[in-house]
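User: Before I run my own analysis I want an independent prediction to cross-check against. Here's the chain; please return only the structure tokens and, at the end, one sentence I can use as a sanity check.
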Amino acid sequence: METNMEKLLHYVWQHRIYPLGTLHTEDGAEIDIIDPGLHNFNAGPDFFNAKVKIGGQLWVGNVEIHERASDWFRHQHQQDAAYNNVVLHVVSVADEQALTLDGKSLPQLVLTVPPEILRNYEELLHEDTFPPCYRIIPHLPDIKKHAWLAALTAERLEDKTNRLRSYLQRTCNDWERTFFITLARNFGFSVNSEAFEEWAFLIEPSAVGKHRDNAFQVEAFFFGQAGLLDDAAVAQERRDDYFCRLQKEYTFLKHKFSLTPMDFHHWKFLRLRPQNFPHVRLSQLVDLYFRQGVNFSRILEARNLESLRSLLRAEATDYWRRHYTFGIDSVENSKQLQNASLDLIIINTVAPLLFTYGKERLDESLCERAFNLLEKTRTEHNFITRSWAAAGLPARNAADSQALIQLKREYCDKRDCIRCRFGSEYLRKTL
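Assistant: Structure tokens:
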């Protein structure tokens, strides 16, 4: 694992922030760095295809960077043939001579991190305020800020593609079922997303599809597979007539299709608003599945944001307009998905599916539709977007808010400021 100093050495090498004057190897040979190479974030040497002149001789190969030269041996590179083509070993401390598997003694460059960069990096690492680079944000040109946000939006969609590809693998490349699982996961709205995903994998389309013309049977199927019709899930005094009818219907379906429900303990209820209870969300999914007939094909046909909202605007079934759990009355309302919730579904379900489908089908127009959809959808409002807005970087739309979420989770939370374009600017600041 890289140390902080090693990360800084990578940064200094990549951005050519070298000390003034001529560079020399440890044994005195003059070094001219023509091209630092391509940064490698996977296994193998740190920089590929670098071009360096050492003592007047041009070398083209890889560069490895360590805090201490002895780390070469600690990482067992002397036993790895992948490091035979390293032409330069860059270190902060030359405490040993690096040797390759084929017995070559590597030239070593002792590289110093400029003190102002080290100071700025320490500031970022120890800053308690989020985002830690807030001091630099107001001073960055808009073009730099928005270019980084665009790259982060694409990065977030790529990350979501990995999850969707895992669904496709588990469902034998079934796009309709992958859509259903993704939609269900996002109906959990973070708190119950894992439980909804688990539940969705238990919904066998060939079984429930045979009863799709009967909303009550679909509801019994959905609630039963969620474990919410288990006697242990509902206190005796709350087992009203509707619960008993659903339970009886599920008992029939369970026997007919040899069903195995999930454990109801996986559902979370603490500090949930009534409209977010799993019972209400499952009822809305019944509405989408039964009344709306929503499927992936219809998602692909929807050409704009409003048509998607109209398609996904699920409403709770009759019983769940007056209840949020079995046997407890609530004020009657439609319990319909509102625009803010609909937009979250579109952001986290529709856009990633369009993007992934485009990638798999080599159809750039679908990928472009995913980006356009995010750009036309209203920004998410949460701690992350509010914090960046306070720092001088408000999200203009959902593409920006997704970018800022990616930035926090994959860079800020990991203190990986060196790979962040804002962090990179901060390291070189003179404010």
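Sanity check: Residues 257 and 416 are 50 Å apart (CA to CA).
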